[in-house]
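Sample entry (259 residues):
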Amino acid sequence: MVGVVNSQVVFERPAAMSSVATHYCPGCTHGVAHRLVAEVLDEMGLVEKTVGVASVGCSVFAYNYFDCDFVEAAHGRAPAMATGVKRMLPDRVVFTYQGDGDLASIGMGEIVHAAARGENITVIFINNANYGMTGGQMAPTTLPGQKTTSSPAGRDVEQMGFPIRTAELLATLEGAGYVVRRSLHDPKNIRLAKKAVRLAFETQVRGLGFSMVELLSTCPTNWGINPVDSLQWVEDHMVPAFPLGDYKVADAVAQIRLR
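Predicted structure, serialized as tokens:
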């Protein structure tokens, strides 16, 4: 007699994610970030009232992957568009999904002023230390000495300046309620990242101001290394340059975390 094996579902696609093939390169952790956001939207029951704002960059097609309302912004202008959506529809939950080239370069003015104004939006910021979609050029987050297609000899800080630590910068602004940095390079840090994404959306739902979660992410294709080694590269090189932690947790937000 053939024995019956009891089965248990341990993995399934979040309802907030569309059932479509991804365009991301193998080993890219954009997909992990998408899943975390989708799981949080499901768990908080926010899908029907959420509006996402896609940026220009590798995440330009983010609207294909989330089963909620989405709009596309011009390069760097996602915070401005999110501001308009939130002010016109204050009952909606509005988030931007942006890469480092989009947010920390052409869109730096937008993100700084959105945080300074305390706009009640949530920003998911993917930092992979280069311009991913356009060919791997040097970005504001590229590490000193890191080789890119536009810095083939490595980033020379005397000529090109130092990397911008966006979380630390925005944390100095009074309008920011919750600004943290997490990473997606291993299971432990992915779990911590999800908790941060949840608290960022909680910050918005409770009307506590601007929130941003910066996520250190891989880019195996442009880094020129395989997906497994790229995870180690994040731990060995990116985490020391961009320390993980909570950079701004307003008192009211801290009370949410303690419950």
